Each structure stands twice: as structure tokens, then as C-alpha cells.
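Prompt: For my understanding, could you write out one protein's sequence and C-alpha cells?
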Amino acid sequence: MLPVSLLRADSESPIACLRPAEEKLAALALSIGAERGEPPASGPRQELYVGEIRDALMPHGPVCPRCRSLRVVRYGKRGAAQRYKCKDCSFHFTDLTGSVLHRIRRRDLWLDFCLCMVKGLSVRETARKLHFSKNTAFAWRHRVISALSSADSEAICEGIVEVAQWPVIRSFKGSQPPEGMSVDNLAPAIRRNKVVYRHFYPAGRQAALVVAVDRSGRARAGVVLHGGRLRDALSAMMSEKADPCAFRDHASLPARMDWPGRVNWIGRRRGRMNTADRLDPGPLYHVRNARRMLYDFRIWLRPFRGVATKYLVRYFSWHLRMAILAHTRAGVAATLLLFEALKAYSLTRTG
């Protein structure tokens, strides 16, 4: 099951129209590539213009990103980007201020970078292909997926909501684990089978990724640490009036369902629950979509060879877009992903 598209209708690139050559995205880049002797820009990066970004971010005309005023006048140019001045707060900005491309030096590589994200390339593969540092590739990736995750956090699941959990061992990839959470003393067989032998790990390393999906296809994810309350994570993901359904198997689920309202239990074991719990909730209540989404996410994560637990929700938002764009041509998908990141980043900056 693919979730309903999170790409808004206005996220797509506007209808192609004649644009001046100096407004090409490649024209905004500094002359670093020419100084290094790199070949001229080619491929999808030539298909994007500054005017398209301006139309997507400010469809009703220039708006001050600081005070949201419409009393804005043109105030020269900065490279190929138009510069503006707000008459209310005297703030100066350009077409790209407040966007994911703000303060980025190699803007001409961003469509190629989004193409690498669509293909699911690793940080090192992306850096090798685009000829820049892996730290730059990492920073660009997280600028995109953090904006997507922040935009998704505004969505709330309503109606019948499926809740599924995936037990995970907290990963501190890229940093040292806190004191008392080292697993160097564990046997190699235990470290290879983290989920099966998770009870051998320190309590602080145990966690769960929780996914909530409603019938409209809206999906949310959250991480619950050991000893945390599941309802605290669910209250941020679904409405108080939601009708949740969850798989009830205390032996396999790391976080106990403690939702204060009514829960429709799936897969109950007779003899362990009281009589009131044995009532069949009906065919509308199942957790197939949520569990399938978790399974697809786990398979999609494998090429990355581990992701820090604090970034799992960001990667889940990235996975949702890739599931939506799975049957779209790579070049078109890269453009759509860029415009989605532009809109999401501007929403997080102004909201």
C-alpha cells in the first residue's frame, strides 16, 4: 500500500515558460567549477530556473520572510537572483531567502543532488559523483530530510488509525555512545542479531519505532525509548478522537500500548484477555498497512548500513516521498523532490 501523496498540488514545478538564460540555476553558482576546470553544467540542473523557485515560494508576489508584509520593492540584484527590500521592517532578501537553497554555494548541483537522493545513493557515493566533500553531502541531505520531517509533523492522523511497532537498538552512528551504553562486551552473535537478543542489551539501548497510518494514507512516525510512554508519542501523531487499532502481543512489542481511549485490538490470544476484549472489532480494523509500511522502510534502509536512531524519523519522511515517486521518471522525481523540499523548508522557517 502506497500512502496518499504528501506532495501538494502546488509543489510541482510551474508550467514551463520562457525564462531568461541568466536565471538558470547554474548561473547562480560561484565560479568554483570553472576555476577547477570542471566541464560545463549538463543534465537536469539546466532545467531549473530561479523564476520557477520564486513562483513556487511566492505565488502571490514577493513577501517579506521576516514580517510577512506585502509592501516590498525591488532593490537591485545579487547575482542572477532579484533582491528585495521590505518597506515595513527594512529587511533585505532575495528570491532564495528562507529556502533550502539559501546560503548554498553550489546551487547548480542541487538537481543532481536530488537525483542522487531519488536513486538512494549513500553519502560517500553522492560526494564522489558530484565531486565535493562527504560532509557537504551529509549536510545537504539532512537539510532536505529535516525540512520534510518538520512539514510532516504538522499532519495529524484521524479516523481509524493503524499503529505498528518495530523494535530497534539505539544507534549512535557518527558519535560515541553515552557512558554505560557500550556493547563491546557482548558476543558477536548477539550483536549480529540485535532484535532477537535485544534483552541482552542495556536498557538504555532499547527503543521502538512507532508508525501510525490512517485510512487516507497519512503516515506519521516516532521513536519511543525504553521506559517511555507510547501515548506521549501517539498524542503527537494522531487526534484525540482517533479510533486506533493495534496488534496486541506483549511478548514481541517493546512498548506497551497505553492509549487512554478505546483501542481495537488485533491478533488477541484467547484465554489471556477478559471477556470484553474478545469482541471482534470487525473487518475495518487491521494493521496490515502500517506493518507493510514498516517492512518496506526496513528493506529500504539496508543500503545505508545503519542510521543513527535520532535521524530515523527524518529518513522515514524521505522514504515516504520515495514510495510516492517510485513509478516516476528519475529526472522528474528529482525536480518534484526539490520543490517539495523548497516548500517544506520555507514552511519550517516561517512557521
Summary: Residues 330-350 form the longest helix (21 residues). Confidence is low (pLDDT under 50) at residues 1-17, 42-46, 270-277. Strands lie at 72-78, 81-86, 92-94, 160-169, 206-214, 219-225, 243-247, 264-266. The CA atoms of residues 268 and 274 lie 11 Å apart.
